[in-house]
Design brief:
By secondary structure, the protein is mainly alpha-helical. The chain is 60% helix and 0% strand. The radius of gyration is 42 Å and the shape is flat.
């Protein structure tokens, strides 16, 4: 028991020494005067109110029926935020055009492209075939070396 008590006392002493070395962090707190606090709160309120609905709108809406106001708000909330449609505005078909709607006649339609492999596929096929041949040759060579090593190991026994 005395050995454990001695160890415990040594550990307590070491902890006290370490705690004495550690200094508390320096605080950067700067007290604020009442005027500074009021000014800061006033600025926050001004920022908040700059995003609020203007009083003129509130007065205008006050004379309207509640149901109508809700419908307007709901309609605006559901309205699209970007132009939709598949045809961009610059190419939108607006009626009759010269050429009668034939592809490529300025209507926004293009000539049809025949189906087929994209350009460069034949070159990629040739490159892959050449690499496959190299891979097969390496595999055959590696297999032959393994068989030769196994035969040498069997002869050495």
């Amino acid at each position: 028991m005395t050995k454990k008590d001695d160890e415990l006392a040594a550990l307590k002493k070491k902890v006290e020494e370490l705690e004495a070395k550690v200094s508390p962090p320096k605080s950067d707190f700067k007290p604020m005067t009442d005027a500074e606090w009021r000014d800061q709160m006033h600025q926050a309120a001004e920022r908040r109110m700059s995003m609020a609905t203007p009083p003129s709108v509130i007065r205008d809406w006050a004379v309207l029926d509640d149901r109508l106001v809700k419908e307007v708000a709901l309609r605006d909330a559901r309205a699209p935020t970007s132009p939709g449609g598949a045809i961009p505005r610059s190419q939108q078909v607006t009626g009759t055009h010269p050429g009668g709607g034939v592809p490529g006649s300025g209507t926004g339609w293009g000539h049809s492209t025949p189906l087929g492999p994209p350009p460069g596929v034949a070159q990629a096929d040739r490159l892959m075939d050449a690499q496959d041949a190299k891979d097969r040759a390496e595999l055959i060579e590696r297999d032959a070396k393994m068989k030769a090593m196994q035969q040498m190991a069997e002869r050495g026994k």
